């Protein structure tokens, strides 16, 4: 036999367990008999009996009256069910694409399946997507909520059914949900600090959505920086108005008023890259040189192109990390880990024109004299 330190019956048990694990005995055929054990291992009947009794007591063998001893049937545990995640987002663009990529990467690592819905800022589509997620029996929801306090009934139903939900990029102050967001207050504050350091003291803000926490927090950070630097807060420069939704003529008239007054704006602080792109086109059409006569800055880099070459400074969002962190938090909620609700705030980065490998200068057609 093998290990002399073990009693003989234990050595026999180990050898027989190895045979069972290797599949040498099937449950539909009689197991090796006491006599065969004695002959194979050169042990006494008492040793063979004790080894068989122990294997039966531990559930490895079963004895059937009139038939003999057999290997016990081993029930195959069912494969764990794949958890399904609904990811509901607004709009398109690099920021949202990277955010979704982060969710997908975490899903793949954690073994979850994800389905994606783009709602394009349409609150009715967001509500529909939430209800469809519930109908499909998802195990959790990640949602990038639309502008405004909408779909309240759908969110209430999600909560009533006990489906874990994590908001990403922004949160709803009227709902007690987990959320993973960028430090938007720091985005407004640090970007304004950079502009003031560059000599800008008349800073006009241009917005897109206005009823979301990301915008409100950025405005609060901007105003906080102005006050720290002793710069008066002018309501005409900080008013929350939807720049992108206005007609082209209205946008350009608004820019002209801000640029032609006694204390004209020297830089436009844009809510995101999409606003910045529209503002650049409008300023070029009005005949302004960027930079030179006026400058641009971006409160985030979400837009149709890389905004930094055209800006004095821009905030870089941790887009992919937002998605990954939101998915991991949702996984914790699905598995019952941690206590909620929780708000996770990720740091942002501010990059300036000086840090860019190249920058652009654009010049509009000559302006007609006033």
Quick summary of this structure?
The chain has about 375 residues and is of the alpha/beta class. Helix content is about 40%, strand content about 15%. Strands 4-3-5-6-7-13 form a 6-stranded parallel β-sheet, sandwiched between helices.
Structure write-up:
The chain is α/β, with parallel strands linked by helices and 370 residues long. The chain folds into three domains: 8-71, Winged helix-like DNA-binding domain superfamily/Winged helix DNA-binding domain (Arc Repressor Mutant, subunit A, Orthogonal Bundle); 84-182 and 319-347, Rossmann fold (3-Layer(aba) Sandwich); 184-317 and 352-363, 3-Layer(aba) Sandwich (Rossmann fold), CATH 3.40.50. 41% of the residues lie in helices and 16% in strands. The strands form four sheets. A six-stranded parallel beta sheet has the order 4-3-5-6-7-13, with helices on both faces. Strands 8-9-11-12-14 form a five-stranded mixed beta sheet, with helices on both faces. Strands 1-2 form a two-stranded antiparallel sheet. β1 and β2 (68-71) form a beta hairpin. α5 (123-135) runs parallel beside α6 (152-161), α7 runs parallel beside α8 and α10 (248-260) packs across α11 (273-285). The longest helix has 17 residues, at 94-110. The model is unreliable at 356-361 (pLDDT under 50).
């Amino acid at each position: 036999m093998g290990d002399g330190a073990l009693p003989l019956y234990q050595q026999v048990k180990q050898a027989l367990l190895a045979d069972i694990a290797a599949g040498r005995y099937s449950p539909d055929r009689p197991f090796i008999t006491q006599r065969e054990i004695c002959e194979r291992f050169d042990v006494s009947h008492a040793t063979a009996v004790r080894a068989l009794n122990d294997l039966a007591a531990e559930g490895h063998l079963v004895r059937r009256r009139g038939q003999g001893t057999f290997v016990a049937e081993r029930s195959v545990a069912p494969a764990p069910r794949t958890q399904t995640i609904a990811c509901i987002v607004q709009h398109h663009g690099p920021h949202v694409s990277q955010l979704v990529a982060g969710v997908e990467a975490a899903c793949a690592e954690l073994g979850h399946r994800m389905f994606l819905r783009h709602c394009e800022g349409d609150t009715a589509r967001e509500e529909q997507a939430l209800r469809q997620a519930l109908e499909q029996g998802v195990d959790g929801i990640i949602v990038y909520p639309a502008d405004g306090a909408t779909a309240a009934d759908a969110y209430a139903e999600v909560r009533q059914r006990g489906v874990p939900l994590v908001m990403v990029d922004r949160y709803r102050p009227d709902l007690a949900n987990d959320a993973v967001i960028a430090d938007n207050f720091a985005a407004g504050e640090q970007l304004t600090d950079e502009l003031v350091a560059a000599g800008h003291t008349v800073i006009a803000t241009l917005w897109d959505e206005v009823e979301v926490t990301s915008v409100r927090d950025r405005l609060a950070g901007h105003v906080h920086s102005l006050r720290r630097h002793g710069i008066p807060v002018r309501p005409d420069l900080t008013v929350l108005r939807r720049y992108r939704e206005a007609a082209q003529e209205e946008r350009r008239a608004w820019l002209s008023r801000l640029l032609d007054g006694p204390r004209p704006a020297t830089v436009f602080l844009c809510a995101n890259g999409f606003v910045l792109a529209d503002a650049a086109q409008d300023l070029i059409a009005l005949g302004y040189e960027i930079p030179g006569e006026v400058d641009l800055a971006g409160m985030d880099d979400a837009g149709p192109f890389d905004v930094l070459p055209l800006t004095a400074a821009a905030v870089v969002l941790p887009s992919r990390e937002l998605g990954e962190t939101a998915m991991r938090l949702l996984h914790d909620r699905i598995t019952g880990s941690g206590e909620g609700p929780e708000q996770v705030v990720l740091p942002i980065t501010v990059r300036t024109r000086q840090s860019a490998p190249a920058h652009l200068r654009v010049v509009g057609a000559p302006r007609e004299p006033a």
